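hiii, so i know i said id send this last week but things got crazy w the move. better late than never?? heres the sequnce for the chain we talked about at the cafe, plus the structure i predicted for it. fair warning i was half asleep when i ran it
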Amino acid sequence: MSGLEILARTCRVSRPRTDRPRPPAPLVEMVFPALNSAWAMEVMRGVVDSGLDVVLSSAAGRGTSWAVDVVRARRAGVLLVTCPISVAEERVFARAGVPLVHIDPVDAAAPDLLSVGATNRAGGVTAVKHLLSLGHRRIAVVGGPPDVLCSRARVDGYRFALRRAGLPFDTALVRHADFTREGGRREAAELLRLSHRPTAIFAANDDQALGVLEAARAAGLSTPRDLSVVGFDDLPAARRATPALTTIRQPLAAMGEQAGRMLTDLIAGHLPPTDRVELATTLVIRTSTAPPPLA
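okay and structure toks below
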């Protein structure tokens, strides 16, 4: 069981206390799709660093009355982490004066809703440009769910980089799965069974990329000699993988901290200067990428 699962649905997470007194921090609801990932832990760490005390909850199995329950609990605000929200739920919070901030929104945020994310499209471009610079020309992508904003942006970056390089967009090399190791393994196995298989795969997150590495091993391929792999996130598991994973670093803790500061401003009655913040992604080169094998 992960640390977040142990915290479960209603655990209060606060900054470490010191002997120096400070005013009580506002208590906010932080909603995740599921409390079971290192990704979520990194985002939560950033929010706590912003000075907020949070109550964690999971969107899994969430009923339509959840917004009313949050209002009744007198939360000072809500952080929605890759969670959708309906118009009716937005109205519940608006009527109660409870401010909302999205972290990595699943869809384009409403005009009056604040959000913090990363440069997902630029990250996709950077990942593919790295593979192109190594000499790869048959590059596949395993995207996340196509209805999720960050997934669409990363695949769009993949497509843009290929077009800029004068390469065709081959739909046979584009797959989608949920953001899990099993999803990456399943789709990579299909890609590696193609008669003209890819020499490199860009996965939409590190968990998927770890699954790609497993699929390559199962197919008798060596990474990076036979197949190069790039992930997205730069979770601790990426550094511990064999081979260590080349990936696009997403500033998860910084995203959480920025969102926490935005929500703090809203709670205090101050509008932040912008309604959408995108933090830069960067390429981290490790040992899962190399030039393609000779034909």
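btw Residues 1-11 have pLDDT under 50 and may be disordered. thought thatd interest u
miss u guys!!
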